Amino acid sequence: MNITELYELNDGHKLPKIGLGTFQIRGYQGVDEILTAIQLGYRLLDTSTNYDSEGAVGEAIRRSGIPRAEFYVTTKLPGQYHHFDDALKIIEESLLRLGLDYLDLYLIHWPLPKRNHYVEAWQALIEARRRGLVRSIGVSNFEKEHLDKIILATGVTPAVNQNEIHPYWPQESLVNTNQEYGILTEAWSPLGRGSDELKEPLILALAEKYEKNVGQIILRWHVQRGILPVVKAVTPQHQHHNLEIFDFALTADEVYQISALMREDGRIDNQDPKEYEEFV
Fold first, then answer.
1. 6-259 homologous superfamily
2. Candidate list 7, 42, 51, 106, residue with the active-site label
3. What is the pLDDT of residue 277?
């Protein structure tokens, strides 16, 4: 099964409409899990230096026998490397760990506004793109004020903003901001990471109506909002089911009802990008 539906980014490059997250997928077992996903049709592989899964992603790509050009590989800049020269070196290090010549997408993992070096980090990503180390550059966990600051400072708008988004935290305002700026929204933990969202009566009822599972309903909700869900799955069954979201559609009212499940305390780990410290 190949995923053929793609989003076009503001820089002209493209990404599949669903990706495999590799948080806590590591080592030889991780290679096998990622390889299974590749065999099922996943081509967007999302990792991070902080996930310690870059080596597993690169090895799975090599073992797959599929040409490098068919993959869309994302990794991210850790907070301790926000200074310009450090950022460029860690991007090179990520390429060495992955065993790749270039990255399809590179993101600043967190803005860390209390440290306030994210503009310098963004300037390093622009330089990395100029050097051909990466094709598209973006950010993760950036709020509107952070986006405005880097765009004003550099004149360069991110291609992607990856944010925490799930039914209890739908981020309507931020998603709208991203769309207004021409930025593709990606969702991390799109299923809520084991929260009660999978037990919501509304979502259970929709799963029954469409003869889908609850995860598929939530992932379809993301896609219909123009969001690219990056979803972790380690079993072949879950990996396969997560791809089966392009053969049905929710109504506009159903999308609205799922978004209305929002909770004021909906964040999974209360990771507010304005306050969160990625490292101590």
1. NADP-dependent oxidoreductase domain (3.20.20.100)
2. 51
3. 87
